[in-house]
């Protein structure tokens, strides 16, 4: 095997199972970090503050930390399973190996919907940001946002089409800038460097929990925003040089980054902006970190946070294209969808047909659907995916106990994280039901219908013999 | 016409350019390579390599 170098384009060992052209293994832990944090960090720049509107600033902090526990469980569980099932498709491939085809089909669709909707939402946001900059720089007429929305989607799709290394290196740079912007704002406004502008005591007085504990529960829905998408790191599994090391390292570093960024964001924004203004993300504070920078009185901070907001939005859309296309590609490769989607570009080594196919879908939603609906469908699909994860890890540990197969990472305290995740998912479903009950029911109805279609029609085309690819022993009890 | 009006046109133009580039390359790739090569990717190649690896 000395003639094999998995990072090489010509001698990468393709072929044991007939692969002539496969995805390129070129990524490291930093790219995994950039993929996960890149998708999420936009949630710190905007969106999380709706949780303040639901229950006040303290409710938003409780939601921030409870959602933080939820996502820490997600990150730990994902790290263990994906470092062992290291293939494109992430949770879809996990479900295929551990639970079964119908679960895998559903999880695959959750992933594609969650990421494509989030990509559309990011493109809408980018268009909005351009219009804000235009009006701030003296443009008098209403800016046509459509060309900017389309440009964001086509440029990022083009980047993804041309290769994963450039795509995620780009994400690494812009995500790092967006994260540094948050740290810089914290150091400048909290009193660590120079005078602080925080007024927590005055702003919170008499508004500790304006809607009581039901407000805290309702805030959980938007508490997810701080971390939604960190599970996307798993989609890089087939393109990292060392899955067993890079995936746990990148994912866990990612959730730690986000826990810090989320808490700092809450601290800064709630200490400067009144909760009534902060909690209204439509006609109040659309981009709270940017608003905090404006109140700091520093032009440099305004520019830094302005670029931070735009970069976070682009990084998120970019990561979403990467992840949605890998999930779609993996389903095509197994014939869960037409096998045509399982193609890899011979030069760029990307799932090019899946990338191209999802562009018009993202454009339709970005240009034709309202932002809050698009975001809600993304959150609901994500939440269904999180509910699958505890079942997945419990079955994984039961069928293949720790001493039967080698894992890249073994998460501690099992099954406590699994049950914690299941419990918090239940609470969040109730919180979503309070605000978006109709959409929740419609979404579940949709997945039931497509499941019936898969069971009674599509499954006959699935490449059943080639589904199980891991060299594991027979599962315990079978 | 101010700067932002020009930027609107530039955004339309660049979008068309990126879209066209993807489309041309896609059609060229599909007509150059056989479907057998393009869809030959199989899951678990790295695991298969590890399986077949023998320590001498």
TrEMBL record, chain A:
Its record classes its membrane topology as: Multi-pass membrane protein
Where does the protein end up?
Cell membrane
Decide whether keyword Transmembrane is in the record: yes
Q: Which UniProt keywords apply?
A: Cell membrane, Membrane, Transmembrane, Transmembrane helix
Spell out the InterPro entries in the cross-references: AA/rel_permease1 (IPR002293), APC_superfamily (IPR050367)
Residues making up the signal peptide according to the UniProt record: none
Membrane-spanning residues where? 21-43, 55-77, 98-118, 145-161, 168-189, 209-228, 249-268, 300-321, 355-371, 377-396, 416-434, 440-457
The answer, when asked if Transcription regulation is one of the entry's keywords, is no
Q: What is this protein called?
A: APC family permease
Which organism is this entry from? Tabrizicola soli
From TrEMBL, chain B:
What's the protein name? Uncharacterized protein
Q: Which organism is it from?
A: Tabrizicola soli
